[in-house]
Design goal:
The chain is an all-beta fold. It contains one helix and ten strands. A hairpin with an 8-residue loop joins strand 1 and strand 2. The longest helix has 4 residues. Bound molecules: protoporphyrin IX containing FE. The site of protoporphyrin IX containing FE has 22 residues, from strand 2, strand 3, strand 4, strand 6 and strand 8. Protoporphyrin IX containing FE binds next to strand 2, strand 3, strand 4, strand 6 and strand 8. Pfam families: THAP4_heme-bd.
């Protein structure tokens, strides 16, 4: 049975977005792209692809879901990587309170600001399961492309973990997916930019 109050992936879909969502409306939808990452504790850098989805149900928060997979040197999928899901609670003035959970045993609460085509979030609290890697802080910046290109955003992620200070872990460029999302398959892995 379809839920009676479905999520909307765009401003043109019902329900109408809550007015408080105005500073984050540009991020609604399904996004796909590629990025690169690394960390001093890792052997080398890695390439990855990612799908990110932001939706809403008419209330003043976004539902957020992201899944990534590693790519080999030819851009072919290697194995599943990070997944996370959560909520961006948008407050008056574009303040954002985010809750993000990962299957690696890490849950973050981040706070920050949305406005002028960007969202900048930094850790407020991290909760770890008993076997999770030690993560003390992250910073995440989502920036819609300037010059009116509403179909591209860049993402930069800094990480303080396993005894290392806050520093670059990931950066990516994602583009708005045409139409509704489908589960990632090798057919579009090879064509994602
Ligand atoms: C697109 C998203 C991400 C990708 C593709 C990614 C990729 C990776 C890779 C490839 C590794 C090396 C270990 C392994 O092969 O699994 C790693 C390690 C790690 N990542 Fe990420 N990651 C992502 C997001 C995150 C996020 C959001 C966090 C924390 C909030 C995080 C925290 C860590 C930590 C703590 C390690 C372990 C470092 C170590 O033990 O030396 N990652 N990541």
């Amino acid at each position: 049975m379809e839920p009676p109050f479905p999520d909307a992936l765009g401003v043109e879909q019902a329900p109408a977005p809550h007015p408080l969502l105005e500073p984050v409306l540009g991020f609604l939808g399904v996004w796909r792209g590629r990025g690169r990452g690394g960390y001093p504790t890792l052997d080398g850098d890695f390439a990855y692809a990612q799908e990110v989805r932001f939706s809403h149900d008419g209330r003043p928060f976004l539902r957020y879901e992201a899944r990534a997979w590693l790519l080999d040197g030819d851009g072919a999928p290697l194995r599943p990587a990070a997944r996370e899901s959560g909520w961006w609670r948008v407050q008056p003035g574009g303040r954002v309170e985010a809750l993000v959970t990962q299957p690696t045993g890490i849950t973050e609460i981040l706070v920050g600001q949305a406005g002028e085509g960007a969202v900048d979030l930094a850790t407020h609290t991290v909760a770890l399961t008993p076997t999770a890697k030690e993560v003390t802080a992250t910073r995440r910046r989502y920036t819609l492309a300037p010059d009116g290109d509403s179909d591209t955003f860049t993402f930069v992620h800094e990480l303080a973990a396993v005894g290392q200070p806050l520093q670059h872990h990931l950066s990516a460029t994602l583009r708005r997916a045409a139409g509704q999302s489908t589960p990632p398959t090798s057919s579009w892995n090879s064509s994602v930019q």
